[in-house]
Amino acid sequence: MYICCVHAPHDASKTTFSVPKNEGEKGKWEKALGMVLKKSHRVCAKHFETHEIKSTWESGEGSNKYTICLKIPRLVEGAVPKLMLNCENKVSNDQNKNVEV
What we know:
With about 100 residues, the protein is α+β, with helices and mostly antiparallel strands. The protein has one helix spanning about 25-35; strands at about 15-20, 40-45, 55-60, 65-75. A hairpin with a 6-residue loop joins β3 and β4. About 15% of the residues are buried. Keywords: DNA-binding, Metal-binding, Zinc, Zinc-finger.
């Protein structure tokens, strides 16, 4: 089980996403979250807009089109956490866990 690294008061989703490997994308996440992210950090789905999370895969067109539900939802390319990021809330930090800002 993964735990959301954003410790703002919220009911974390069971679905979590790993930090992007691309340094540019990772930088956008760090700026949005207001924290330095490690490879092991995970961010829950509640911090992303619904259109940024892909939970199905589609193929074909017209009457040949079919949809498959993904067991593990994925983020669309360029997705950045935007929701529930109030900087006055508690945020985890390597040195100071759950420090009020």
